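Researcher: Next entry in the queue.
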Amino acid sequence: MRWLVLMLVLGNLGLWWLFSGPDDVERDSDASGRLPRVSELQTVPPPSAGESDVEAPEPAHSGTGTANEASEVAVGDVPGERRQESGPVTEADPALAEIPIPEPKPVQRYCFRLGWFDSEEAALALAGDLSTVAISEPEVEAQEFEQPPLHWVIIPPRSSRDAALELFRDVQRRGVDSYLVTRGEMENAISLGLFESRESAERVLEKRISENLPAVLELFPRNQIRYALAFEAAYSSGSQELDQARANYGHQFELVEINGCEGVATTKKSP
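Model: Structure for this entry, 271 residues:
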């Protein structure tokens, strides 16, 4: 009986020595695949003071949540991990900030002169149509043009108006085209016709002399007064609008003058 008890004690001591070392436990557990006993497991030490503030991650919900929801919860609860949130970029784009803003082109005042008009009234009629273009009050300018003189078959002036009227009635009774000059250097003369061709004038002169009319041949000056319209307009230097205006006026008028007005160009203001 004593031998049996002694053998059991020795057997227990041998087992205790066999499993007491950590290296042996790991080697035996790896070799045999046996799980260690509860008594052989080391307890986890309690967290230190610095780690006590970190909250333990909550377990993922089971049953109803998906795998993606569980992973999002786990990542959001990891201490020190910062999630990247999507949203519009609030910082200014450096590429946009470097784009230069073009400065407005300077505006130049241009002096226009358009012609010719046969009367002042015709020039003023165009001035009313330029209210949206002109930046100054349009002005009408008169200019005298010298023309080749006409050849004038005329009965020289009489000494008085009564003598001129008596001769004029006699010429009318003969059926000759004529009119009485009532003013100017040839006042109280009787005109028998104006001709551009000298040959035509000489033929008529010969005929009137043959009719016993004291006609002579004179030169009739015919300087012509024509009118132009002058105004100012503003355009950007080298703009297409200025080129278009020059082309349009060139088709409408014999005279088209567009020159820069004297003065300093100004910068066009934004509306």
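Model: Confidence is low (pLDDT under 50) at residues 24-33, 49-54, 59-81, 264-271.
Researcher: Noted, moving on.
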